[in-house]
# Entry
Amino acid sequence: MRLLIRLRARRDGVYDTAYHRGLAGRIWQTLEDTPFDNNHDTDNPNGIAFSNVFPFGDFEEGDQRNVLVAATNDDVLHAIGADLIENREFNVKEMPFEVDEITGVEPDVGEPGTHGVLECATGLVVRIPPSRFDEYGIDVDSDAAEFWKPEHTLDPLQTQLENNLDRKHSLYQPDYLPGPSDVDGDLFTDYELIKTYSLPVTVTENVEQTYILSKFRFHYRVRDDDHRRHLNLALDAGLGERNSLGFGFVNVREDQKEPPTAGQASARGADS
# Structure
């Protein structure tokens, strides 16, 4: 599930591309003094993902902007929404907004047989651990993880995305359900790279790092109910790392979503 938070600019402003920590701070502020207050102090993925402030660009007083917040736990979203109704000031660093409206939305990749596309809207953080450098032919003399780049090929990207989603599945799905690596078949049928770029990111107070990010369109065909659940988990928890800073947030491209044909639907009904 997601919250669509509609914002109204309180005065003219310049869009801050280094918004990540400021937006994360405003969202976590809503969870203070709730049972979910400490979720962001763990090394585990925290089950929350969020978009940038969109549409992108400078704004004038009264302009509308939006933020989408997704979570694996609906109670987290209820807590966020309840606080924003009470405390409508929504400043993202020097970008001054107030909450105009909050709406619940429930995106879904579609039933088995559906073809579609997930688009990464905020940049994907994928890092390859040093223990796998030799496996992927990465000639880097470093003990630090290497950000994925196109020259590394898709193999490590696919592996790291699946491993990361496996971890989220183990945290936020029942134990008896198979995770992404427990089933046959890949998460996506095609990986369409839009661009790779570097961005300075403030990860903690007074600590800035340069991230190498990638934007992708991930094409899929939903194989079965397990695959559908894995893809919908990506919608709720984000793909890749650093979702708590707003990276790896994905949307369903509704304009490219194709429902299953009648033949596919009837075949699945015969098997069930």
